[in-house]
Amino acid sequence: MHVQGPQRLGDILKTTSIPGASSSPPTARACPTCGTEIKALQITLLGELKWIIPACPMCRDRAEAQAEKRQRQTHQTTRRERYLERWPDWGLPLDLQEKTFRNFALRDGCKGAFEAAKSYASGWPQTQGLLLWGPVGNGKSHLAAAILGEVVGKGGVAVFLKVQKLMFEINASYGDRAKENELDILDAILAMDLPVLDDLGAKRWSEADRDRLFYIIDERTANHQPLLATTNLTPNELRGYIKDRAFDRLMDRCAFVENGGKSYRGRGHSA
User: What is the pTM of this model?
Assistant: First the structure.
């Protein structure tokens, strides 16, 4: 019969039970739950060497793994609820809440962006980012919303952030009635699984706005956290708008994909 070498009592405290110790090696037994052979174990008990049959290590490890999984699920559920309280419907405006890959209207010039977005979503989780660029109203925000829906469906935390609205909210956080400050908002964005920065370049920004955007981009890219963005600007126009520092970070960690389709607006479709 195979037996394990001597161990101290502290090394086996994770066993679920300690049967009566004996001075002679007991016979190995099969676990009644999983059938694994449980071998005798020698311990030091009150200064004497004793033999015991410990709890099944396979069942113990399985129980510990299940407990850890339940703990992670509880944490993730609480985390998702906290974000939904701050950003109802994951920040999606009403006209984008039902947007999926299935109801995206493919047109000339859109196929490459559609395939890239779908591949990005199916490959989630990601460490790289994605930036969709092209003319106004051709479905970039639709694709971003579809990606967000896939990420959320897989248990992730993703929030759709209209950049112009985000900057207004941050500026408002300095008001007397504000419930959160700028750092609270920025920290929440950095902590989520996927922030969606929609419509980069939609307004004339102050230097403070550019600094905030650079902070978000720099922190996420430096830590290999994904970022999804859309813009109506060409890459060269975007560089001039957000300046070299932020643009270089995006180029380093994001795939730039053009949506070359024409505008859907006025035909029952969203941007």
Answer: 0.73
